[in-house]
Amino acid sequence: MIKIFLYELRRILTNKFFVGLFIVTCIYSWQTLSGDIITGVANTAPFSAWSYGLYLGKTAPLLVITLLFFVTFLYSRKEKQVQSITSTTSFSPARYCLLRCAAMAVGYLLLSVAVIGISFFFYDWVFQFSDFGNLLLPILLILLPTFVFFLGLGMAAGRIFPPILYGIMLLVLIFGQIALPPVADLFGIQFYQSYPLTLPLGADGEPAFSVPASFWIGKILYLAAGGLLMFAALFKKKRTY
Amino acid sequence: MSFLSYLRVETGRIFRSRIFWLAAVLTLCAPIAGYLFYFPATLNHESSIGLWIANPALAGTFGGTVLFALLTLYELDRVYRKEMASLTDTIVSTLMLSSSRTLSLLLAAAAAVVCAAVLYLPYTLYRTGALWDGGYYLFAYLGLMLPTVWSGILLAAALYQFTRRVELSAVLLTALVLLSMSQYVSDQFLLRWINPLVPWCSDYFGNLRVIQTGLYSRLLWLLLSASLWLLSLPAIRKYGYGLGRSFLKGCRKIYLPFTAFVLIGCGFGMYLCQPFINHSQMEYASFSSHPMSTEPKLTIDEVEITCKPNVMTGTQQGTATYKIFNLEKEDVVETFIMNCGYTIDKVTANGETIPYTDLNNDLNFEKQIEVTIPPGYVTLVMEYSGMPQVWNGLRGSLTGTVFSPEFISLEMCDFYPYHSFIEHGKLELTLPEKLIPISNWVDIEVNLISENTDGTRTWELEPPRGGYFGNLYAAEYIALETETENISAVFYCPKKQQAAMEEVNIQQILADVLEYCSAHYGTPPFAEEGKLRLIEAGIPAMMGGYAVDQTSIMSENTFYEKIYTASAETANSPEIMIHEIVHQWWGLGKNLYDDNTASNGWSSEGLTTYTTYRIIKEKYGEEYAKEHCVDVWQSQADYLKNNFYFRYPEYLDRLPEQYAARVRGSVDSIMMYSVVPLKILKAEKLVGGEEKMDEILKGLFTNQNLNPITYADFLDACGLTEEALELD
Ligand SMILES: [Zn+2]
């Protein structure tokens, strides 16, 4: 099983497309840091959890697009042929699919690590800032729900009609530009820019990092929706094979 | 089967494909982004044309290009996979198939773009109203959007035919898109293939240069993408061969690579020989680096220039006739300077053709021309022609000398071969009949000498001495005159703007401000005999403003200055008008500046904003002034106080310079427009009221000292300390 997992992982990571998107994401991350983030978001420090949340929110669409491309591999015609070969092995298609999701998760994680690593390097280089502990919460708040929601959505869409996946990618790009209420603001782009302005300032002149219930609820809803969609996609698959 | 029948089949197939309709509908939606959040054309000047035509069209350009490039990848991949099964294609039919397929996509894209242009027409007509510009609308959709979408399709098809991989082609395309959008090429109109450079849109003075550079860059990218596409045709895999072997086999059709290389050659030629931007260094060089001889070896008694602009092409044809006396007994090589865009066609001395050298050493706006002048009295005639070029340092803003149907600006002396020894000059200028020339020099006479039969009029201009004509602006100007007790003013604004100006009652505002400021501070030194000329210049010539005696020139973009008064969000509002006229006193009459301006925000804007507030208070009442001025300043100042870099300035020093400059820019404008006015307001309370403050300001204004008023001067005059004015 480990062997198949490693095989899948290698297929994802050595894909030309992943390499290309990886480079693009790195460049974009650097541009975002040196463009929007360096001025500080909502008057907070450029290395505050608020600014960091916006940074992740701005780079998240690229992560999501990479993830969705991973999903398109699942449903491409060539892949179906490979599947018919691998399905002769002893375990069920659903289990096999789960294994590939795990490989995708590792790919997504690697890309996230790159995005985060670049930001840590940037903070250290420009601001000599290295107290990264308080940036963990914004990282968690964005990476996990985004991954689960779009993996589920992508798998469901891929099952119905794979070209929709490309449509979703486009929507993701547009999604990142529109002002949404906190419940729906998955990337938090609007939230991180406006919410801190409404908070009282602490002793250091910065609002402490805190997230309102509606934002939490939104994240949980996205997580739940993603989980359901994923389950549905996996379950339906079992029936067809 | 003939090519046409292939094309018919392919086009029919495209229009039946669901995914095409998806791409087309999304393309039709893309311009909405230009109304909501994508504002590339209104960064410097929020004109109606920019807001309602350029922004949506540019959003459509970007969105449509991405969508149709993706559609191309999808379609080619789908068809290719179908054909994989049958390896029966002959070379000819493969070529025919691929080209008819791409051509059908181009046709489909054209249909989508035309639909978008028709769809947004009624709303655009409604929003632009009297400022509607049909030519610009056509340019935006058919001149920018359509060719860009086409380039995207050709690029995508080429990449796919080379790589045969959808995802790899998509990544390469993304890289090309990011390159075009990156900051490294943001000021280079030729390299921005998917987001054309539109640094401004003018409502009143035409957009010729933006249109020309836009079309030129579109043509360049069409050529490049078409050549890449042609090159990719031989690369189409046949008989299951790999890339290299298919390509070599395909290239036996020699006309394919040949045409491709010719097109690439044309593209590079267009890149290298673009006629719009000169090749000067980007930093402004002081004049001494273009040396002109200081030891006179000759005198130039007179120059007579005829200037015949061709406003449709943006070029001019000129002749300069010099009366020269060469003091030496031999030939003298003299250097003239002129705009880098012109070429000398012919030089004659006393009727005989003589040699000259165009040094092509672009520096700032000019280059040098060396002419060998024979001894004695010489009548030197230089004939020259061409399109004035933008200085390389301004390539991102595309402003400068321009000849266009709506507006002509002759900047400085770069419209003819200039020499500093010229004693006396005369210019004959032939303009379209609706254009009226105005010089920024009040003592340059402008006379109409003839009305010609071809719809033009010829004007004669004569500066009192020298060959320096100042800056000349010609547009369909109207003169709005205002007279008050102490001062009279005439405001030259374009006829198209008259309605907007009358809506804010510009003459009344002018009168109010002139009355208020001359009563409170005195007449500006440049308004000799109490006369003031205001000229509105077009943004094609410049941004910002300046003053020379009796005349103050404002670019149309200054009427959009962000002055932080609540109702000033719309252009041409009374507040902005008042503010710009107050600048005749603070800024142009007396400059305010400080060595510490960067840190304390002390500039002409502060006192101008304060005076604007006082006038508003007098005109509209205390409550209105508080709500629209003081409260707005206060909220801006509060915002600044919370800003990270304002709280921890030490971090600003740690930033690499280019980032620090950006941060400072946003801090500076709040300091200038909000914090300093608040401090002046505080000073007003501390010195004992408005009347006291007016006395102090009058003292500062009438002071004979020519140096800028510093913050320390202001504090001294108030008898206050810096600490006393700190805001809490
Ligand atoms: Zn101003």
Note the gap between the termini of chain B. 84 Å
Count of folded domains of chain A: 1
For the biggest β-sheet of chain B, the strand order reads 5-4-8-2-1-11-14-13
Question: Given the C-alpha coordinates, what overall shape of chain A results?
Answer: globular
Bound molecules: zinc ion
Helix content bin of chain A:
over 70%
The residue fraction in helices of chain B comes out at 40-55%
Biggest chain-to-chain interface with counts: A-B, 31 and 35 residues
Choose one word for the global shape of chain B.
Answer: globular
Explain how this protein is built.
The complex is a heterodimer of chains A (241) and B (728). Chain A has 241 residues and is mainly α. Chain A has one domain (2-198, 210-235). Chain A contains 9 helices and no strands. Chain A has helices at 2-13, 16-35, 49-75, 77-86, 93-127, 136-160, 164-175, 189-194, 213-240. In chain A, α3 (49-75) packs parallel to α6 (136-160) and α3 packs antiparallel against α7. The longest helix of chain A has 35 residues, at 93-127. Chain A is globular, with a radius of gyration of 19 Å. Chain B is an alpha+beta fold and 728 residues long. Chain B has 3 domains: 3-272, no CATH class; 292-469, tricorn interacting facor f3 domain (Immunoglobulin-like, Sandwich), CATH 2.60.40; 477-725, Neutral Protease, domain 2 (Orthogonal Bundle), CATH 1.10.390. Chain B has 21 helices and 20 strands. Chain B has an 8-stranded mixed sheet with strand order 5-4-8-2-1-11-14-13, with no helix packed on it. In chain B, a hairpin with a 4-residue loop joins β1 (298-310) and β2 (315-326). In chain B, α4 runs antiparallel to α7 (166-181). The longest helix of chain B is centred in the first third of the chain and has 38 residues, at 91-128. Chain B is globular, with a radius of gyration of 30 Å. The N and C termini of chain B lie far apart (84 Å). Chains A and B meet through α2 and α7 of A and α2, α4, α7, α17 and α19 of B. The complex binds zinc ion.
